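User: Second chain of the day. Same drill as before.
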Amino acid sequence: MTLKSTFKLALLSLLLNSSGVLAADNLGANAQESGEVEGLAFLAQSDMEGPVTVVDFVKFKPGGEETYDRYDALAEEKLRALGGEVIFRGYSSPFDGSANEREAARNGADPSDLGWDRVTMRKYPSASAVVEMGASDEYQAALPNRAEAIEDSVVYAFGGNQMRNVPLSESPDTIYMLNLLRFNGDGGVAGYGDYGSSVVPLIQGAGGAPMLSARGITPIISNQEIDSMILVAYPSHEAFLSMLRSDAYRTISSKRTNSIELGLNFPFSDRK
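Assistant: Same format as last time:
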């Protein structure tokens, strides 16, 4: 039996209960949707080459963080055995005060979407390594810890060679803004490229720097299609907000809004 066939059987065994009904608790909240089956099957059938980074957003149940840490440690051990690595862990770092929340939200995210407790970026050497991970006994044994720990999650696979390990920041004040984008169909990619050329000097002027970028491959647990992910570091929350308030940014901000139909922007720290 091929690895892909083994994975498909393991996936069905994992997600279906004895009555043949999709078991919501196996992958946490929202797992009852069929998207994770389709997304993982897409990777299982894919002949794509190059690394795949699986980005995992989670919101914990009360007291769930310690249990998730057990899952995370087991998952990372298997990931490393497959030649992969965790390239970034982010911990929720919300803006202080409702006004600042709204200002951050205007740059992409609805305030209700600013509630992820953690994001983990797990980089695999290939799509087949993701398949092997999903089929492994070690990973399946770790999943009950995940299900027990989380209230909600979004998991998405990204590709591209611009996904490198992000070293620990020098300052605990550093904030990482994680952008999830879906471009509009009327010149959105080109329009966002123009915005990017204009905004990078402003980011640098604020003491920040783009860290990672990747193209969306497939949702695993998500009701959104994502074209691109970009991670940008800033020295502090205030540095980010000051850039947004600047006349220079206001001049170019329409380039962003006119080029996307979805733009979510989440604040994280690399420290708990």
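The first helix runs from residue 3 to 15.

User: Great, on to the next one.
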